[in-house]
Amino acid sequence: MNWETGCGDDMIYFEEKRAKVVHNGVVCDECDKEVVGIRYKCAVCDDYDLCEECERKGKHSQHSMIRYATPNMPVGDSMLTICLFSVHVFWVIFI
């Protein structure tokens, strides 16, 4: 965690709030528990997810993982955004 980006109390609150995020319908493929907190989705495999604990233990380390702080919203450098412009339409697609 990068403590330099905010005040201590704010960062603690952020960490507590993030820890409560439930990714409904997403189960860790290592421990078979519902994913709560950061979700790690394999960038190579079709359907492979890890919880924070299993990712921290180095499970499935042979592939890059996409981090999701909230359901369906990648975070950090792992976010891939594709913007398509037209006359009246702006699309942002999160993969």
Kindly state the percentage of residues in helix: 10-25%
Task: Please give the number of β-strands.
Answer: 8
Per DSSP, the total helix count is 2
Write the H/E string, N to C.
Answer: HEEEEHEEEE
Average pLDDT for all residues: 72
Q: Can you tell me the CATH topology?
A: Wheat Germ Agglutinin (Isolectin 2), domain 1
Mind telling me which CATH architecture this is?
2-Layer Sandwich
Annotated CATH homologous superfamily: Zinc finger, ZZ-type
Q: Main sheet: which strands, in order across?
A: 4-3-5-6
Main sheet summary: 4 strands, antiparallel
Category from helices, strands and their pairing: alpha+beta
* Overall morphology: globular
Q: How many domains make up the coordinates?
A: 1
Low-confidence stretches: 1-7, 77-95
How much of the sequence is in beta strands?
25-35%
Radius of gyration: 15 Å
Distance between the termini: 24 Å
Can I get a quick summary?
By secondary structure, the chain is of the alpha+beta class.
Defining key terms:
two-stranded antiparallel sheet, zinc-finger, Autophagy_Rcpt_SigReg, disordered N terminus, Wheat Germ Agglutinin (Isolectin 2), domain 1, four-stranded antiparallel beta sheet, membrane, Znf_ZZ, alpha+beta, 95 residues, globular
